[in-house]
Amino acid sequence: MTALKFAERLRDLIGGVDVLLSDIWGVVHNGLVAFPEACEALSNFRAQGGTVILITNAPRPADSVQRQLRKLEVADETYDAIVSSGDLTRNFVASHPGQKIFWVGPERDNSIYRGLDPLLAPLDEADYIVCTGLFDDETESAENYRAMLLKARERKLTLICANPDIVVERGDRLIYCAGAIAELYRELGGEVIFYGKPHRPIYERAIALAAERRGQAVSLNRVLAIGDSVRTDLAGAHAFGIDCLFVTRGIHADDFEGIDQLDPASVKELFGHPPRALTRELRW
């Protein structure tokens, strides 16, 4: 294992790359403001003939994610398509008609059910749980849900996690996500089905969309993932067989404070399987 240095520019890493699978939150924006240089980098890659698929653990349909990006002034020309864990969760709900859902998550995530006519029910009547997040992610953590999860385990309910992220940036703070609740439920012995990174289905969908846009099959050795999470972005890319550019400005920023190069021992400790390169922020 070799040392890892920080790459300054995306353009120095894209020789032989046809497709970028880019994370959104932490790479393109932080939940409050977009990162203009990251948007420019993705746009420039497209201008040179590359394909950009945004791949996100947002528990909402792709069109809702696009509306959020537009509000943050991320131009549609920045990317070719969006794949969200919300869309994959919608597929599960649609394939289980007539079953009752206990929904855990904020009202702002209700677009995940758009057009599905879901049967929402109390926990005691539900056939399974859909978790899109915490009811109040400003004040709560997964521990606030322990009693509820113990009741769900007694009923042997499956929990569908629509966002495997544990935390996400919101400005300069870290906010708990649905993955925190799902992991606690799994620790308590409950059954969890995860949709989104690092799990394979979201990558398969992203590659299929890239192939559609390019009009030909996509070779995985010509794909580069971009993300800021070891647990989701890096682990997911490695498991799927693609390289990853790791952005350190996101949820792991404190781990890289004042570091210009990682020795092999640090690479192994921080990453396990190393990324192709590190960058503090995405720029062309």
**Total number of helices:** 8
Given the helix and strand composition, which structural class is it? alpha/beta
**Mean pLDDT across all amino acids:** 92
Gap between N and C termini? 27 Å
Strands, total number: 15
CATH superfamily of the largest domain: HAD superfamily/HAD-like
* CATH fold-level name of the largest domain: Rossmann fold
The run of helices and strands is EEHEHEHEEEHEEEHEHEHEEHE
Shape: globular
Q: Beta-strand percentage? A: 15-25%
- Major sheet: arrangement of strands: 4-3-2-12-13-15
Describe the main β-sheet briefly.
6 strands, parallel
Count of the domains:
2
List segments where confidence is low: pLDDT < 50 over at least 5 consecutive residues: none
- The CATH class of the largest domain is identified as Alpha Beta
Q: Measured on Cα atoms, how large is the radius of gyration?
A: 19 Å
CATH architecture label name of the largest domain: 3-Layer(aba) Sandwich
Percent of residues in helices: 25-40%
Explained architecture:
- This protein has a 6-stranded parallel β-sheet with strand order 4-3-2-12-13-15, sandwiched between helices. The chain has a 5-stranded parallel β-sheet with strand order 6-5-7-8-11, covered by helices on one side.
- The two termini are 27 Å apart.
- It folds into 2 domains: 4-86 and 198-279, Rossmann fold (3-Layer(aba) Sandwich), CATH 3.40.50; 87-194, HAD superfamily/HAD-like (Rossmann fold, 3-Layer(aba) Sandwich).
- The radius of gyration is 19 Å and the shape is globular.
- The protein has helices spanning 36-47, 62-71, 85-94, 146-154, 178-187, 200-214, 230-240, 264-271, and strands at 4-5, 19-22, 51-56, 81-84, 100-104, 119-120, 128-131, 158-161, 167-170, 173-176, 191-194, 223-227, 243-247, 261-262, 277-279.
- The protein is 30% helix and 20% strand.
- The model has no long low-confidence stretch (mean pLDDT 92).
- The chain has 284 residues and is of the alpha/beta class.
- β7 (128-131), α4 (146-154) and β8 (158-161) form a beta-alpha-beta unit.
